[in-house]
Recover the amino acids of this structure.
């Protein structure tokens, strides 16, 4: 492979991965000031969904890099 530019699929997945990471960080930050009540439980569920989405994006990115073997 002699592609000068970054693999477009890899770039797309990396952006998605980063966006999911930001969302996960924001969701966990939102937990910090809360009391352990129903509001916390709701926010915790949101954070859990954000974590699962982040994991999914992370795996998709690494799977692509592994399968496609793109250097950039
Ligand atoms: Zn690629």
């Amino acid at each position: 492979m002699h592609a000068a530019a970054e693999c477009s699929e890899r770039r797309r997945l990396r952006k998605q991965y980063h966006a999911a990471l930001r969302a996960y960080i924001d969701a966990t930050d939102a937990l910090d000031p809360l009391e352990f009540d129903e509001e916390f439980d709701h926010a915790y569920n949101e954070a859990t969904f954000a974590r699962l989405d982040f994991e999914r994006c992370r795996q998709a990115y690494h799977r692509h890099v592994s399968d496609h073997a793109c250097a950039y």
Observations:
- The mean pLDDT is 90.
- The radius of gyration is 16 Å.
- The chain has two helices and no strands.
- The pocket of zinc ion is lined by residues 7, 9-10, 64, 68, 70 (CB under 6 Å).
